[in-house]
Design a protein that fits this description.
Strand content of chain A: 5-15%
Oligomer: homodimer
CATH topology of the largest domain in chain A: Rossmann fold
Radius of gyration of chain A: 18 Å
CATH class of the largest domain in chain A: Alpha Beta
Helix content of chain A: 40-55%
Number of domains of chain A: 2
Number of helices of chain A: 12
Shape of chain A: globular
């Protein structure tokens, strides 16, 4: 997905939020915004928003010297989500359609996103996602794709959310490769988060080689690209991965996310707050 | 009031909104944002937000060549408000405290503000403002100040809102000088708006000599400053005038506005959406 002009104010909001979480004082926060301002004229709108996300969080890391400003928050949400695991699992076990329930939970977990502006309430989110109709619902295609492959490439999004992904992976019953970011960026999941949430017990964990908050193929490692190019079925979680991959090729991707900003809603033809299971090749 | 870092994303939002209203295409919109980005590092946080507002709207005017991008919207709201005049007047006539009812209406009219992010519903706003308690309510001081002067300097805010000011001016029964902006900026009232809404029948209309969306004394004309310095009672409408004047001196100002952004809410010790009648010398 390209960058829209409405993303630009949001880049500044994100930078400010990250700078504050990194403990920067006001002068340092201003310096980060000034440096971001200098990047704006050079940033082509044909690039995807996570590419600027990468610049924003790199600036915050370099100027504050904080390698991982969201570390504590990530640890906290990993723990909160892991504590919910038995309840979440029960919810799936006692549902009429276990796969669909697990998909809904995976979307509910996608609300643990510190890169967007809205605060969130995880329990309420789970309740809402179970009541809500999907705005885009390529479930039939998803079930068919599942039947025809043994391997799945699963593109992770945020820490904490990983536990919700685990629930879905357990329902898929396939060989899953779980892909996280290579370096800290916002609260996106890293290898350590995936391990902490127990993904290593049921899937292979790899990094995509990049530090942007999404999957931008031109910035990913050759190892990841080899898997991506060969994949028969890719599950892409969250807005960041959608922004990086949408419209870029004909890959067999199912995008699974909650629309958390009006710009993406507009791009995908949904409203802010909608939930989506969208097949890339339809 | 100083500029807070949270104002910076908002400057970009305002620039984009104004550029679009001026009919700029996407390339021109981007050029406006790029030019704004270049101003950010040079803008001291000790300046007040309307000073940057002035820069933003000047950029939009210069780059689009549109001298008054909000002209149509201003005309529309002048007409809407003028059509409501008989009903508004009736509301005051049939209230127990006519002055207070007129103050409430003057605040309700302050919602006609295209510089802030929220959409508005004028009728609902009027209803709400009559139900709401003031978060800051220096009404006693205001009535006393009224008793001790014959002249009032009234600092206007937006087109359309002028009709609501007229209702209040009619209740004041004093010699009023009504001060508008000198050049178009957002939907702020100009001399032509004040005349269209009938202010010339009950008050002298002057401009403050500046084109920023607020009253920034260092940018105002000597003629205005002479009146300002001598004034015994100043009524200041809206956030922009508050941002420019709050804390700057010991002038006998009553700020009358609705809090329309969390940054100003924080500065004044109120919540977003609160209504305020605040005495500057308290």
């Amino acid at each position: 997905m390209r960058t829209y002009l409405d993303c630009i104010p949001c880049f500044f909001k994100q930078a400010l939020k990250a700078a504050r979480l990194a403990g920067a004082n006001e002068d340092t926060q201003k310096r980060i915004l000034d440096n971001l301002a200098a990047e704006i004229p050079n940033f082509p709108l044909s690039s995807s928003p996570p590419e600027m996300g990468g610049i924003v969080y790199r600036l915050v890391r370099e100027i504050t010297g904080e390698e991982d400003p969201f570390k504590e928050v990530k640890d906290e949400y990993n723990k909160i989500a892991l504590n919910s695991y038995p309840d979440l699992k029960n919810k799936v076990i006692h549902s009429g359609d276990r796969l669909l329930a697990a998909i809904r939970l995976a979307i509910a977990g996608n609300v643990i996103d510190l890169g967007v502006d809205n605060p969130f309430d995880l329990e309420k989110e789970i309740e809402d996602v179970f009541k809500k109709d999907f705005a885009i619902f390529d479930y039939q295609e998803f079930k068919e794709a599942l039947k025809s492959t043994k391997q799945i490439l699963y593109l992770a999004d945020n820490a904490g959310e990983v536990v919700f992904d685990r629930i879905l992976i357990e329902e898929l019953n396939k060989e899953v490769t779980y892909v996280v970011r290579d370096k800290p960026v916002i609260n996106d999941a890293l290898i350590e988060d995936a391990k902490f949430c127990g993904i290593d017990k049921m899937a292979k964990i790899i990094s995509n080689g990049s530090d942007v908050p999404g999957t931008v193929l031109s910035l990913c490692s050759r190892d990841f690209l080899d898997l991506y190019e060969k994949a028969k079925l890719i599950i892409s979680k969250g807005q960041g991965n959608f922004e990086g991959l949408a419209g870029s090729d004909n890959a067999p991707i199912f995008f699974l996310f909650k629309v958390k900003c009006p710009v993406i809603g507009n791009d995908v033809g949904c409203n802010d707050g909608d939930i989506v299971l969208k097949y890339n090749c339809k």
